[in-house]
Design brief:
mainly alpha, 0% strand, globular, disordered C terminus
């Protein structure tokens, strides 16, 4: 009984004392923001056909569907061209800010609004990865995904250094941003634009009020206990959202694997052959033909795909086996991106897989990226110094001649 109580207290302390998986959530943030950003940039020439008011799924059809399911989308607030262009640019900007990790508690909400607004406007535009991105954009709102590898982390580090030097640190941008977004949220709510599904408006209001409470306690509280309590609540919410993200990834693979088992083509080992010979999924016909020339190879890939997807959720209790299957799934998605021409679906799935990557691996990856960035900066400085010297020499020569 004492051992059980000790384990229980240790588990509660672990969940409440810190936000678990800071590197994993940072990778998820970067991965999904980059996926959505690259998709939006690629589809700029086709944005009208995908999500615009003049697309095949026109404004009236979208209005009828949303009137039925109550889905949230800001693009349905107006059918004007200018509003659509603003919404598309807003989605791009929020993706950039989310990728960089600037004010992630706020930009995660803006990122979710951008994703839901475009995807719910035209729900039939996607390749499967949009469903994953749709869910993860909501889950990321509840995570503290800017603790590492973000502008937030750099700002927090500089603030700690300034306080250590005895300097006073005042954050003016945060309250100003909170006030502006609060005004917009109140105006939109009073105008009736939030009528329909209650979940997204509830999330928007909850995050806005929580941010205001966080700032108020940080500025007005005379003791540290209220801030510690809010920090514990934030850690619990973060860890719960991280658990949901992991469960969602496992559910995706488990359901995909078990549904494949029920298909006759997957049972006889030929399922992989057919999509490789569809024109829509064959950007490289020669490469697809090379992979399907061997029936044995097709059978191994077919059965291997099913085995990996079904077995993965059960391997989470064994770190080594989990890492092997995780590498296999990431490799599989990379191959799908090239062979089947589904890059954004693969990027979304790889970003979801990143929640299971080992912390030690992510730290090494971050250290290598930091060293590579420092080398690039040093080379840029070295290249700039000779240019400055040559400019100074030419200026002295010019002065000498004129003198």
């Amino acid at each position: 009984m004492n051992r059980f109580a000790l384990c229980l207290s240790h588990g509660i302390a672990r969940v409440t004392d810190a936000a678990l998986g800071p590197y994993q959530t940072a990778v998820i943030r970067i991965g999904f923001a980059a996926t959505w950003l690259l998709f939006l940039l690629r589809e700029i020439p086709h944005r009208q056909e995908l999500y615009g008011p003049d697309g095949p799924w026109n404004f009236d059809l979208a209005q009828q569907l949303i009137g039925t399911n109550g889905a949230f989308t800001a693009l349905m607030w107006s059918d004007g061209q200018a509003w659509f262009e603003f919404g598309y640019a807003f989605a791009i900007l929020s993706s950039v800010l989310m990728l960089l990790g600037w004010r992630t508690r706020t930009t995660s909400v803006l990122f979710m609004v951008g994703v839901l607004s475009l995807q719910n406007r035209s729900i039939f535009m996607g390749d499967g990865g949009d469903n994953v991105l749709h869910l993860m954009s909501v889950y990321l709102v509840f995570t503290r995904c800017g603790l590492v590898w973000s502008l937030d982390a750099r700002r927090a580090r500089r603030a700690r250094e300034a306080r250590a030097r005895g300097e006073r640190v005042v954050d003016r941008a945060g309250p100003a941003l909170w006030g502006v977004l609060g005004f917009v949220l109140i105006a939109v709510t009073l105008s009736g634009r939030m009528d329909g599904d209650w979940l997204i408006p509830a999330i928007l209001w909850a995050v806005w009020l929580a941010q205001g409470l966080w700032w108020l306690v940080g500025r007005r509280a005379r003791t540290a206990q209220p801030r510690i309590l809010l920090d514990v609540v934030a850690n619990i919410v973060h860890n719960g959202a991280l658990l949901v993200i992991m469960a969602e990834a496992c559910l995706i693979y488990a359901t995909a694997g078990w549904y494949k088992i029920q298909g006759t083509l997957w049972q006889d080992g030929t399922a992989v052959y057919y999509p490789l010979h569809l024109e829509y999924f064959s950007p490289w016909p020669a490469l697809a033909g090379l992979l399907t020339v061997s029936g044995t190879l097709v059978m191994l890939v077919t059965y291997g795909t099913v085995i990996v997807q079904v077995a993965f959720p059960f391997t989470l209790f064994n770190r080594r086996v989990k890492n092997v299957l995780l590498a296999a799934m990431i490799t599989e998605h990379a191959v799908i991106a090239v062979i089947l021409g589904l890059p954004f679906f693969s990027l979304a799935m790889i970003a979801a897989d990143a929640v299971f990557l080992p912390t030690s691996f992510l730290r090494r990856l971050g250290d290598r990226a930091a060293r590579a960035r420092e080398r690039v900066l040093r080379r840029a400085v070295r290249a700039k110094v000779p240019e400055q010297r040559s400019a100074e020499d030419s200026e002295h020569t010019h002065v000498g001649f004129t003198a």
